[in-house]
Amino acid sequence: MRDTRLVLIMGGGVSLGTYIAGALTEIFWALQNQAQRGRTGNVAPVRIEVLSGASAGAISAALFARALTTAPAAIADLHRIWVREISIESLLGAEEEGYDPRALLSAREIDRLAAETFYRPADYREWQPFCTSPLRIGITLSNLGGVRFRLDYANEIDTYFSTRIHADHITFELDESEPEAGVWQRIGDAAVASAAFPGAFPPRSIRRRVIDYFPAVFAPELGPEVPMWYVDGGVFDNEPVGLAKDLVEENPSHQQFDYRYILIDPYLAENRVGVNDEVFSEPSSLTRVLATLAAAVHGQSNAKDWIRANKVNWRLAEQRRFVIERLRPLIELAMADQEGIAAQVASGLEDQARSIAHFKRGVNRPFPPLNDEVESYLRANLQRIEDDPRYAEALEGLGDKAREAMLSMIFIVECAAGLRDKEPMPLYLIAPQGDEPYPLAGDFLFNFGGFFREEWREHDFLCGRRDARAVLLEEIRDQESGEPLLDYPPQDGVDYDPAPISVTADDLTKEERGRLRKYLRKRVEPLVRPHLPWYIRPLRGPIVRKVADTALHAIGVPI
Asked: Buried-most residue among 76, 230, 255, 266 (CB within 10 A)?
């Protein structure tokens, strides 16, 4: 049985980050119990190897990584920060603190929490046994300035096709050795930058190594590091499946493990059936065209990773079907021959496999590979194929010669199809469950609603724990036996069946709406004033009130 590795992917969600925090807390509890059982019994190891996050998911990924690698008690920070600390009062800030002209909300409380949580020295002596070393972390970012890349034209010299790429990310690798100086501050800074919701929070600057953007060309005078400005990583990649997959493939032994990809997605408005069941109606106005186009661009950028993963899964499934239904009968037919053809077939396939191995080992090298290197590479791949449960049916019952021929043939097919280093991506979803239209309390005001009440955030946190427990116990199973990989008790004192709750902006009290209205007017006034002609400025008060009230109405807040 192969060791199971978990890859956790956390999307954005603003105040719905409480749901992600609840799911992560439950996963930690489950693996902690599994690890304790493993010390006393024959329990297959399940470990976390990769975390990837966007926006609120980036904050949660960073907090979770801290608990995995420095102290298990730090898992409580997920609840403390998301449920108790961050609130609408802290985000509106105090007038005497002043306002950032680049954002509507205050980020002071977020900065304080980041400094308190991530800037402390790290002590890796409590590295959790259910966390691999190294632990790889990926955080998506949206680069305001972008990075220019260029491609050569075949018929032009010193002329290039040039484009700017704004979808960005940053990765970290932690291991049990002495932590790199300042690494946790960089993780915290990246997480906060990824959560800088455009317009709500100010953009963030991070110094980046130019080598991280190879083959982009930077002017030498800029130096080895340059400052870059970022906003919410969810703008271009809100569910970083592809980033997680890339981090898995950085493990040179990744094909030896059984990876399970778990997406924690608090969003509710998606069509999870995946059926085109309606026709897009004609846009009625320019505003409708622009709004629809913006949503399309955002959706398309998020879809690219899913499309890539689905194509690989489909190609692997087709390859397996081809090997079982087409190749095996041919190999059996050839090996049944009694006139020497079988030996020629086996020898020919072996020679072809060796030739491919020679080519693979020689790529990007100034000299040909040694024969021992080629043989070692080929043997390792044939052994990998023999150990792969996907090919068990194709190899079952074959004699020695037929088995060797079949292994060589599968290796040839894998290389020809470009699937030698690929494996299926089993993707599991932890998402809000229930028949209610809005099972999460914070799912209003563009998902900022949960910040208004601690009891709403507590509800969504518990929903995350409930839904994660259901997936871990019922859906993540051993591939061979079909038994659940995780079996653990509920945590004492946790309500795994929170009462259904339905909250909208109409549930805000008069005082809550009044404070939001007053705050918005104060923030809008300095934004509007410079654009008013001198003769209209005496009327700026009514104009500001009108603009603020219109904005509140647009986001669904009763006036």
From this structure: 266
